[in-house]
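In the current project phase, work has continued on tokenised descriptions of protein folds. One protein thus recorded appears below exactly as we store it.

——
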Amino acid sequence: MNIADGVLREIEGLSKKGGMAEMATRLPQKGMAPGATRGKPVTLEQVLDLLERLKGKKFGLREFQRLIESFDVLALIGSGELTRETLRLILTPNEGWAAGELQRMLSSYFPFWNEEIESSQGYPDGYRFKSAAGKLLALQSLHLLGTDDYGSHVKELATHYARNMPKGAEELLVCPKPSRAKEWGLTYSYNLPLSSALIILDRAIKPRFQNWWKDEQLGDTEMLRLTDKTAAALDKLEAETPGDYLVIPVQMGMRHRGRSARRAVACFAENEFGLGPLEVAYYLASCPERFVMWYDLGIICAGAECKDSPKGEFDGCPAFNEHQDRINLRYRRADEYSDLYGVATGFLS
């Protein structure tokens, strides 16, 4: 079956299920592609007719094949974002469209579109999501922070999310509020509570934890910082959540597996934000069974930006993975993609 046959079948299936409209609603609004003009949106019938005429033809550009195979393109067609003129330019690359121009056009619709690979990796065999109450108990068993808060609000929030889990979330993450640092007489920043979170993680999985960062790097805001979107989301959750613990709807990598950190960020839903290393460290402390074998999906913390050296740029993210029976925390470039990693994210209601 050639490309056109495969896409024709998928479009027909989406049309019958009403899936075109559903997919269109989750896409952010994009600007027009270079060289494109506004005109009448391409209709589903026109796309079907177009693909019928494309059957049997071969395309010399691999980028064009990826474009046709992308479900995001189908959603753009369904939402009217992809116009007749734009589609004509895509389908006539030999009429003055060099590969570089086509790549710029793809990037205008799909930022970092080529930093993604198919992945079949996932969570450990038999892995089951632990309840919020179970995660809280696991953290409290580590004598976490010596808190007197027994987390009664965690159960209440878990009951709420059982009926109102945001789309895309798989489970709930429980972690102490980063602002608890104020009560210890410390100047509040994300970096100081992060160091405490890593101590807790080491305590939970000792001797499996391997931190490839130096303490002074993690504590230095010139080496590691939250992204603006994640910082705003955590501030909002802190303000709205009673008690000492945050309860965050999350997914731990499957939704964005195979994508680079910056490609995943470009694909985030409006209410979605990247998790930082603090949140993921507490998750792993409460769910150490998340990593068993080297091929278990690694976790990229796209909610934070970091450098690999003091003189470097903020061009990376912290990431956790399993290697040689150790859970490692390491630096990973934001443009690096692999089928062995996925970006973990949280969701606002």
